[in-house]
Amino acid sequence: MFLRFFRKNISPQNCFVLYRLAQAYSDEALLQAAVRFVILNFSRFCEGDDFLYLDLTSLITILSSGDLAAASELDVFRAAQRWVRAHPGTYHFLVNALMSHVRLPLLTDGELAEVQAYLGQVGDVQLQCKQLDGEERLRASGGLRAGMYDECIMCINTQILETQAPDTEDSFMDCYDPCTRTWRKLPGLKSLTHPACVALGDRLFVSGGICRNSYSDALYEFSSLKGSWAQLPSMLVPRATHGFLVCDQRLYAMGGWCGFHEFLSSAECFDIAEGTWTPISRMPYVLSRCAAAAFRKKLYLLGGVTGLTSYWQFHKGLLIYDVSEDAWTQVLLDAAFFSAGAVAMNNGIYVVGGYTEKRNRYCSRKCFFLAEDGSVNHEIAVPKLPKGIAYAGVVSWGKRIYVLGGEDTTHSWELSSESTRPGRPGPKALGPFAPWHFKGNESQRLHPTVASMKQMFF
User: Fold this and answer.
1) Res 148: pLDDT
2) In terms of C-beta distances under 8 Å and separation of at least 24 residues, what long-range contacts does 162-171 make, across chains too?
3) Residue 40: predicted pLDDT
4) Number of separate domains in the chain
5) Which InterPro entries match (predicted)?
6) Which CATH number fits the domain that encloses residue 76?
7) Taking CA 205 as the corner, what is the angle to CA 204 and CA 210, rounded to the nearest 5 degrees?
C-alpha cells in the first residue's frame, strides 16, 4: 500500500530514494515510475551524484527514451560518459552498450570531435560519419528528444481580411508558445481561405480551401525544421470546410464542399510515407463545417451541416469512422450544432461552442464531453465559455484547451492586438479552458484553423 502511495508522490527530493526502495522491494511499478521521473527531469539530474548509482538497465532505458528532457545530445553523451567513468574496469563493454543509444546525427561537428576524442582514449573506436542535411540528420537519428523542441500552437487564419490584397499578401500564420506567452510570425500560404490543418510532430499539413475563387485539392506541408512550405500530391477531390485528421501516419480528408451548395460525402486517406491518396468508405450523408477529432484509432465528425437552402440544415449527431474496419457509425445527439471545436483528451472528446439551432441560430457558450462511443458523459461537467462563439480554433496543449478567434451572429472576434504583438505576453490560461481576450472588429475576421506542433531549436 505504501509503495503505491510513493508512486503517486515522486519528487526531485525523493526520486532516487524511491528508486533504491523499489530495487530493495522488487517493486517494478515504483521502479518504472522513478525512472520515468528521471527521464522527464533529465537536465536536473544528469550531473548529480545520484545519477551515477543507476543500474545499467535503467540507464539504457533513460538514454534511449524519446521523452528525454535533454536540451542537446551532447548532454546525453556526457551523462553516459560520467556513468562509465564511475564504473571502471569494463570500459569497452559499457562504452559500446551505451553509445548505441546516443543519437550521433544530432551532434554538431564540434561535438562529434569531442565524442571521438573520448572514444579514442577508452578504446580503438572510430565513428562512422557522413554529411547529412537537417532533415536527413533528423531521420537518421530516430527523432529529437523531448527537451530539444517546444510544443507550440500553430494558428492559420482561414479568411482573407477585407483590408488584405489576396493576390499579393500571405494568409496569416502565427506560432504561439504557451510557456512564454509570446507570438511569432511564420510564412503563410498565398491567397488561401477555408483550408483545414493538422500537425504531426514537427510537420504541419494544410489541405483544400478556396484559392482565388476556386476550390482547391492541394496538400501542403510546413516543416518547422526548414521554416518553409512544400506542396505534396493533391487530393482526389477539391474540398473546403472539411474534416481533416491524422491517425497512424495517415491523413484523412472527409466531407466538406467543392462548390457553393455542393456538399460532399466522399472521404480519402493520404499515406504520408508512400505519398499517395486512396478513397475510403463514403460517409452516410454529405457533411460540412463539422468539428473533428481523432481518438483511439477512430475519427469523429461532430455536428456540422448537411445542406443549405434558405437556411443551414444542422446535423443533430456525429459520425465515427473506425480506421481498422473502414466503416462509419452514426450516433444521435440531443442538440444540433455546427462550426464547433473539438479536442481529444482525458479519455474522451471535448466539444466547444459552435452555432446551435433554436428559433434562430445562435452562438453557444456550451461545452460538453463525449465518451469513446459518442455518448455525452454528463458526469464530467465542462464550464461554459466566457462568450458564445463559433468558427473558433480549438486545440489542446498540455492539460489545457485553448480557444482562438471565431465569431458570433453579430460580431467577429480576433485576438487582442496587444496579445499578438511579438514579444508581448499572450492571454492567460484559467481553469480547464483558456479564455482568450477578444475584441469586436466588424472588418477583420479571424476564423483560425489550429494545431499543436513541435517547433525545433537544435
Assistant:
1) 80
2) 162/443, 162/444, 163/443, 163/444, 166/191, 166/212, 167/191, 167/212
3) 93
4) 2
5) BACK, Kelch-typ_b-propeller, Kelch_1
6) 1.25.40
7) 130
Q: How many residues in the chain?
A: 458
Do 139 and 153 reside in the same domain of the chain? Answer: no
Q: What is the pLDDT of residue 237?
A: 95
Round to whole Å and give the CA distance between 9 and 269.
44
Question: Quick check: is 306 in a domain?
Answer: yes
Whether residue 78 is found in the same domain as residue 177: no
Assess whether 126 and 155 both reside in one domain. no
Domain edge (last residue) among 125, 143, 161: 143
3-state SS record for the chain? CHHHHHHCCCCCCCHHHHHHHHHHHCCHHHHHHHHHHHHHCHHHHCCCCHHHHCCHHHHHHHHCCCCCCCCCHHHHHHHHHHHHHCCCCCHHHHHHHHHCCCCHHHCCHHHHHHHHHHHHHHCCCCCCCCCCCHHHHHHHHCCCCHHHEEEEEEEEECCCCCCCCCCCCECCEEEEECCCCEEEEECCCECEECCEEEEECCEEEEECCEECCEECCCEEEEECCCCEEEEECCCCCCCECCEEEEECCEEEEECCEEECCEECCCEEEEECCCCEEEECCCCCCCCECCEEEEECCEEEEECCEEEECCCEEECCEEEEEECCCCEEEEEECCCCEECCEEEECCCCEEEECCEECCCCCEECCCEEEECCCCCECCCCCCCCCCCCCECCEEEEECCEEEEECEECCCCEEEECHHHHCCCCCCCCCECCEECCCEEECCCCCCCEEEEEEEEECC
Q: Give the type of residue at 61.
A: T
The CATH number of residue 404's host domain is 2.120.10.80
Pairwise CA distance, residues 457 & 93, whole Å: 34
The residue-averaged pLDDT of 89-99 equals 74
Is there a single domain that holds both residue 102 and residue 250?
A: no
168-177, 227-236, 251-260: the lowest-pLDDT one: 168-177
pTM here is 0.76
Report the DSSP beta bridge partners of residue 342.
351
17: in domain: no
Q: What pLDDT was estimated at residue 131?
A: 57
For range 247-266, the mean pLDDT: 92
Query: What value does the mean pLDDT take over residues 64-91?
Result: 87
